[in-house]
Amino acid sequence: MKVQFSGKPMLAMVMGAVMLAGCVSSAAIVPTPREAPRAVPPVTRGPGGSVSMPIGQPVRSATPAPRGTMDPGFRRPPAGLNDRITQLWKAFPGKTGIAVQRIDGEWALSQRGEDLFPQQSVSKFWVALSILDAVDQGRIRLDQPVRIGREDLTLFYQPLAARVQAEGSVTMSVRELIETAITHSDNTANDSLLRTVGGPEAVRRFISKKDLGAIRFGPGERLLQSGTAGLTWQQSYSVGRAFQAARAALPEAKRKAAMDAYLANPVDGASPAAIASALTRLARGTLLSPESTEYLLDVMSRTRSGPRRLKAGLPPGWQFLHKTGTGQDFKGMTAGYNDIGIATAPDGTRYAIVVMLGSTTSPIPARMALMQAVSGAVAEFHGR
Description:
Layout: H1 16-23, E1 44-45, E2 51-52, H2 81-91, E3 95-102, E4 108-111, E5 117-118, H3 124-136, E6 145-149, H4 160-167, E7 169-173, H5 174-183, H6 187-197, H7 200-209, H8 221-229, H9 242-248, H10 252-264, E8 269-270, H11 272-284, H12 290-300, E9 319-326, E10 329-330, E11 333-334, E12 337-344, E13 350-359, H13 364-381
Antiparallel strand pairs: 1-2, 3-4, 3-13, 5-8, 6-7, 9-12, 10-11, 12-13
Helix pairs in contact: 1-13, 2-13, 3-5, 3-6, 3-7, 5-6
């Protein structure tokens, strides 16, 4: 039984939750190991229908059901969880998508769960899956060497670029590239894996073969980012801040037209519900071999990006493995601010959690606070 929920975003652009999030430091959101987790106070509605909620506060995980009894959250969402998610979704400005699915259960819920949102670096997840599927088929080896030269460099975050520039080229194994692409979100490492597996079409074939649903895969980092900015890719853009300089030199109207086109029909778009389903299938072991499943989940547990996103909303004792994605900014708006992952409760119950901000001008602390509130709600209602 799969339950889906939908609604329409509120027009109000200012809410108590976001104001609260902007007034406190993100460090105050996560308790220190010696703090006792506190239950989240209920959401309240103020004058004019404004929503006030404690975003990102520590929550207390529920006590597991006694042995031999039916877990009440197996077949249906815990009472109140959908309402909490809906209130959080309504209160946050911009295009927002949220999906939660119980991996070891029978339910899923979402808000704008079927809409397409820009993935950005979340798409590295599909590259890793495609590579490991090829490993399972014997077409690629984890110890297979891959050469990376200056002609392979991309843009934005690519720690590998310094080594390549200094040495002329480097050779890394597929295993090392997966680790670097997922845990560090290195764009050059990811595009090197993409080239090794057969390019964007190979990833698209994997998505289709596994029937993953509403998930697109873009043309690779260089073409995706240059197209979103209104530029035609040149390899010289991979050096230093050449790309940023070329982008800044464009007429504002051209940049806006390119950004609007991307947001209206993202070439790397994916629906939150489809991503949650794919995470669920990975965790259940139905996408890859047992060895590859265990390996990828282990790599995702070491992700370094986004420590104040979904992960920070979970109370002590919970585990979280994930992949983030962040798009380009234009006049204070970010095209894609995402986190997707698998949360595991102390009793072993697992949830796929996806939060995607398709376009928002909210400050970064408010974005992180929304994500923390979503994961915190999952933990708070767990076992009810």
